[in-house]
Amino acid sequence: MSIFASKSRRWFLIASIGSALLIVWHWPLAANRGRLSARLDIAIGRPQILTYGIVTPTHNEYARLLKDRYGIKTRAVAGCIVSSSLVTYVSSYNEETRTAELNRFGHDIFTETREQADANVQREIAEGKIY
């Protein structure tokens, strides 16, 4: 019986340490997973920007312009409640995508598109098309 008890304790200790390491290392792994996923999507010709949070008229216009002008889709991965590892994943993914697309197009298409989306939405608000 004492042999079984010591094996159980040993497995419990190993499982506890493994769980703790997984929790500690999960955050940096999210960044690596984000970069790797973005590289794979770019390599197969499917660049996208990941989003989370409240969807606004400016966001919708930004997404439309990115897709129409540059073939870059946006994909919502969460609503307003997100974990820190998801924020890290999305940030790393988008950073990799932005770098690749800036190199591909030779200028900052994201800032340019964001400014155009803002201007379009402000014009529609002034014209009374959206509230």
Mean pLDDT: 88
Distance between the termini: 74 Å
Helix content percent band: over 70%
Q: Tell me about the biggest sheet?
A: 2 strands, parallel
- How would you classify the helix and strand content by structural class? mainly alpha
Q: What is the string of SSEs from the N terminus onward? A: HEHEHH
- Strand % is 5-15%
State the strand order across the main sheet: 1-2
Count helical runs: 4
Which residues form runs of ≥5 with pLDDT under 50?
Answer: none
Shape: elongated
The number of domains: 1
User: What is the radius of gyration computed over CA atoms, rounded to a whole number of angstroms?
Assistant: 22 Å
Quantity of strands, as a count: 2
